[in-house]
Write a structure and sequence with these properties.
The protein has about 300 residues and is mainly alpha-helical. The chain has 13 helices and 3 strands. Strand 1 and strand 2 form a beta hairpin. The N and C termini lie far apart (about 45 Å).
Length: about 300
């Protein structure tokens, strides 16, 4: 898109709409999400149809983005296309019939970065299971895993030097998922503690074990996350999926590519494109390193070291 169009749109929001600086910045960030989505699909903003925009909205839904956040993004998109029509760049507005998401639908809670910090701070590293729980939280939040994927993680599928792990997702489909630097650090520390366990036969390759040397269960992960949230004074209804949902939401709000997030989460969609399927794995790792709060020196939650 020509920079001139973006500059004129900025002036339109500032002068014609009299919006605040923060609101304008939010509109422009949301517009960037759409433009990136369209670029991935090799569609220009002028050629985008109502169906393309509906597909974009479906992508937001598939990522687990809260309906209120979806509505804010679509509001920004509608504003941009109204400007294009107003400034005679387009004859018709493709967003005219684009429906807003239903706010009433209840989706999982999202934790703020501060709440994540508080949960990490609640972990007692002096306890036998403390370092294990720290690694569990970092892996859930740092890579957006499902609880079933977490409990089935195998040491042999973690590639420390490359910063990736191989995850067995739904339908026995495997995918490569980037590991943040903080996740890798906490997993390495847990492995040192894990070496002191008496591990039961057949459980040797599972990453996360209980104190008896057996694979953790889904129920145990639910109990760990609930307990830590309570200790942190968080009143929200927390489950392991809350960390997955927060992972996706924080990356999206930080400006990460929708397709990259979708691939990392292992979502399937009839709208998945070839460029999405064959996305370079190094780009996925770079997305986490650049956009995830764990890797932002200004938003550190390493409170127990």
């Amino acid at each position: 898109m020509p920079d001139l169009i973006l500059k004129k749109y900025h002036s339109f929001l500032l002068l014609e709409k009299s919006l605040s600086k923060n609101t304008i910045e939010a509109y422009e960030r949301d517009l960037e999400k759409l433009l990136t989505y369209l670029a991935d699909a090799k569609i220009t903003y002028k050629d985008a149809s109502l169906e393309h925009l509906r597909d974009f909205l479906i992508d937001l839904h598939d990522l687990g983005i809260h309906p209120r956040s979806q509505a804010r993004i679509i509001s920004g998109v509608k504003s941009f296309y109204r400007f294009l029509q107003y400034d005679e760049h387009l004859e018709e507005d493709p967003t005219e019939l684009l429906e807003m998401p239903k706010i009433g639908k209840r989706l999982p809670e999202v934790l703020s970065v501060e709440e994540i910090n508080n949960i990490v701070a609640a972990i007692d590293l002096s306890q036998n299971e403390g370092q294990r729980n720290r690694a569990i939280i970092e892996t859930l939040y740092g890579s957006g895993l499902r609880v079933s994927e977490l409990i089935n993680l195998k040491i042999s599928n973690i590639y420390v030097d490359e910063g990736f792990m191989k995850v067995d997702g739904k339908g026995s489909k495997q995918r490569l998922v980037p590991l943040s630097d903080e996740s890798l650090k906490q997993i390495k520390l847990w492995l040192l503690n894990r070496n002191g366990l008496t591990i039961k036969r057949g459980q040797e390759d599972f990453l996360f074990l209980n104190r008896r040397g057996s694979q953790l269960t889904r129920v145990m992960i639910f109990m760990i996350t609930k307990s830590l949230a309570e200790q942190a004074g968080i009143k929200k209804n927390i489950s392991p999926h809350t960390f997955r949902h927060s992972f996706a939401t924080h990356l999206l709000e930080g400006g990460a590519n929708l397709r990259a997030i979708q691939q990392m989460l292992g979502h399937e969609s009839i709208l998945t494109t070839e460029i999405y399927t064959h996305m370079d794995v190094e780009f996925l790792r770079d997305t986490i390193l650049r956009f995830h709060p764990s890797n932002n020196p200004n938003v550190s939650h390493d409170t127990n070291d």
